[in-house]
Known about the structure:
- This protein is mainly β.
- It is built from 1 helix and 27 strands.
- Among the domains are: 70 residues, SH3 type barrels (Roll), CATH 2.30.30; 82 residues, SH3 type barrels (Roll), CATH 2.30.30.40.
- The protein is 1% helix and 40% strand.
- The strands form 3 sheets. It has an 18-stranded antiparallel β-sheet that branches.
- The longest helix has 5 residues.
- The protein is elongated.
- It starts with 10 loop residues before the first strand and ends in a 15-residue tail after the last helix.
Amino acid sequence: xxxLPEGWPSTLLVGEGSGPALFLGPxxxxxxxxxxxxxxxxxxxxxxxxxxxxxxxDGPVKVRAWLDTSRLAGRVQxxxxxxxxxxxxxxxxxxxxxxxxxxxxMRVEVRPRFGRTPEPEVGPFTGxxxxxxxxxxxxxxxxxxxxxxxxxxxxxxxxAGRAVELYAxxxxxxxxxxxxxxxxxxxxxxxxxGEWAAVRIGTGPRLxxxxxxxxxxxxxNDVPETPAAAPQAARNTGLPRALTHDASLPLWxxxxxxxxxxxxxxxxxxxxxxxxxxxxxTPDGLVDVFLAVDDDVALRGLVRARDLEPVxxxxxxxxxxxxxxxxxxxxxxxxxx
Length: 337
């Protein structure tokens, strides 16, 4: 297994997504072994192989697996332009990390945000960014963080009621199309060139492109559009949500230091006591379970029967056990042993 390019961060984050994120190996047919919540920190353990990267999770469940790169993300550490895409990145904005380029930069995927609910579907855009400019930590608010916001230039709005094309430069290629909206998006006009206007659009990441035609006047009574908060790792001291979707399965406590095996490989070890739903038992004293300690990570695998303990009376509120408000952990099944 080769290493990451020089200068890459050793730790990144899990971004938003659905379905299994953890796999037994890099191949397309590798079994899915678990789910990870957005905001969980992952340590990169080697180079990207196709659509997967080997990772370690050092939380209450210590995991050794492969993460689908569609779920790998990081926070921008310093503002800049995404090379090869019409995107300006601000400090602490979340970007998807999809691999490395030939010169060792990050291959980054970004969808601009506009502060609307629902967000207009624009992008995603893929480009390259210095690896040193992305990491797991939120940068403390300082002088550089003010640069994320609009610079106080002329404000206007894109035309409403029709699709709006944006260009790389005057008379250049179209780089983005905004779908028809009942109220046009607010823009900051950086400069004008005849019938063309260089505009910055969004709350971050922002589109930076040229618009051709007449802009609508900004409404002084508009409520400022604000960016959505970046996802944070889940926290839960009761029964993990991933285990509340099927209350008919036997529920157990799992001893700390229990090892979780999948296809003969150890994929995880519990640093704390956990919870498990029993799926089946094997003749050699192993139990096929779906387990978790908290809402960060949920795994399927085999544990020893002696690592399972009865749930203590009163340890579980009945309304949590019933799972009345819980959501299923994902929309795709995990692999079998």
